[in-house]
Amino acid sequence: MDDQYFMQQALKEARKAFDDGEVPIGAVVVANNQVIGRGYNQVERLNDSTAHAEMLALTAAFNFLGSKYLMEATLYVTLEPCLMCAGALYWSKIGRIVYAAPDERHSYRRSTGQQSPFHPKTRLEQGPGGEESLQLVKTFFEQRRK
After folding, report:
1. Which residue positions form the known binding site?
2. Which residues are annotated as a binding site for Zn(2+)?
3. Which of 40, 88, 100, 101 has the fewest CB atoms below 10 angstroms from its CB?
4. Does the residue 140 lie in any domain?
5. With a threshold of 0.70, does the pTM exceed it?
6. Cβ(77)–Cβ(54) under 8 Å?
């Protein structure tokens, strides 16, 4: 199993969000080649503006491990994290973040510029699945505007 496989798992989560009428972003947390947390946007369902895919996946991973730190884990997320999620990822001390597509409008970079808000030991990478992720978001908003 590799980045492609785990990003596909995150994209499955994003499709769940899409089917539920949520902005289609999905995330999985992986440790020791095993998914230990999953999440997709549930802002509307939970009436909670903090119910982003990353936040829900992190909570599931913390609960799975019984730990507040994820230094040996990787987050796979379909869209680059926002500033709120970046803050949660900082405190998690997650080892690696792989995002499928950049988000020019809402990513953490809008507030921080090129300065990383993540833990100094966290590695950030753009990974596979970018076109599929962006197409899912684009289709979602095109349908909402009809």
Report:
1. 52, 82, 85
2. 52, 82, 85
3. 88
4. no
5. yes
6. yes
- CB 52 within 8 Å of CB 86: no
User: Does residue 92 belong to any structural domain of this protein?
Assistant: yes
* Tokens 């009436």, residue located: 47
What's the CATH number where 70 sits?
3.40.140.10
Residue 16's contacts (CB-CB under 8 Å, 6 or more residues apart) are: 26, 40
Residues 6+ apart with CB under 8 A from 40: 13, 14, 16, 17, 20, 22, 24, 25, 26, 27, 53, 56
- pLDDT at residue 56, rounded to an integer: 98
Domain count, the chain: 1
Provide the 3-class DSSP secondary structure of residue 144.
Answer: helix
| pLDDT confidence tier of residue 109, bands split at 50, 70 and 90 | confident
Query: Domain for residue 145, yes or no?
Result: no
Domain membership of residue 141 (yes or no) is no
Q: What integer pLDDT is reported at residue 39 of this predicted model?
A: 98
Q: Which domain holds residue 49?
A: 3-133
Report, as an integer, the average pLDDT of 41-62: 98
Q: How confident is the model at residue 144 (pLDDT cuts 50, 70, 90)?
A: confident
